[in-house]
Amino acid sequence: MYKGHKATQCANRGCQNENKNPALVGAHVIKSEGDDKSWYICPLCSKCNSDDNHDDMTVNEIDLAPYNEIKDL
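Predicted structure:
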């Protein structure tokens, strides 16, 4: 369960922001590869989560929280 966990930095491994900006938002994401089309919540900085950012991102699996588990908290 993810309750009580707090992100301290952007999970995007390719984040171009200086000092890996703090993760201030929980972004709704899906995996781009494989058959799993479930929604996940991932900690991202505001710049990586911007509507203007259409780049694919690479994050560690451990940084993905299943959306269904989060919404039911």
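Summary: The mean pLDDT is 80.
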